[in-house]
Amino acid sequence: MTKTEQNRVLAWRLKVLQEAGAAPRNVAQACRHFGLSRQSFYKWKARYEAHGDAGLCDQPRAPHHSPRATPPGHRLQLDVKFLERIAGTGKRLYQFTAIDDCTRIRVLKVYDACNQTSAIRFVDEVLRRLPFRVLVIQTDNGAEFQSRFHWHLESLDIRHVYIRPRTPHLNGKVERSHRVDEQEFYQLLDKDGIADDIHLFNDKLREWEDYYNYHRPHGALDGQTPYERLLAKTAPSVSPAS
User: Fold this and answer.
1) Which end of the chain is more exposed for a tag (fewer CB within 10 A), N or C?
2) Average pLDDT, stretch 4-10?
């Protein structure tokens, strides 16, 4: 985490503690306002009382060396693809996308609103469906990824990292995957009968997600599929016979 990101996290945690401290009986109300669990609030409160500002800084969550680690770690990029408006309704759908930095395994889902509620529901589904522990989630500075979403990740002990404003290339893996979606899924999708049925739309998207993860060779993975890369990264190493 950069110093700027650390300062932003520190400022948010101080603000939560100060607002709750101004009305001690309203800790629950302050936690609801900031989208933070009371368990996390009391954790940060205890750290602050013991160590001051330093106690509110993120602590390392992984050992410096782990022989079973999967480089570069379980880090996800999250973003939203704005889909075309549904003809005749003015309604818009939004594809939320999570991609693993190492294996390129993705989770996709369409929602009819682009807000923090959708983002939190999506990330909860991502965490249920991925076969590994997520340590870091990286997003842009969109309104859907602000305080409630941020503190929700904190309560799950997941570090949330914002890319710098106007630097979409820093979320390059998810951006490139959206171009693949456009070229290989949306341009070929028959939208008749599904555009106004979000459940059917998500069924079709899940089929595409499965094809992308399990069957489609990925150039950046030397022709492996994301699932094949996952198996290669998690397979136990076998020492040559002596």
Assistant:
1) C
2) 64
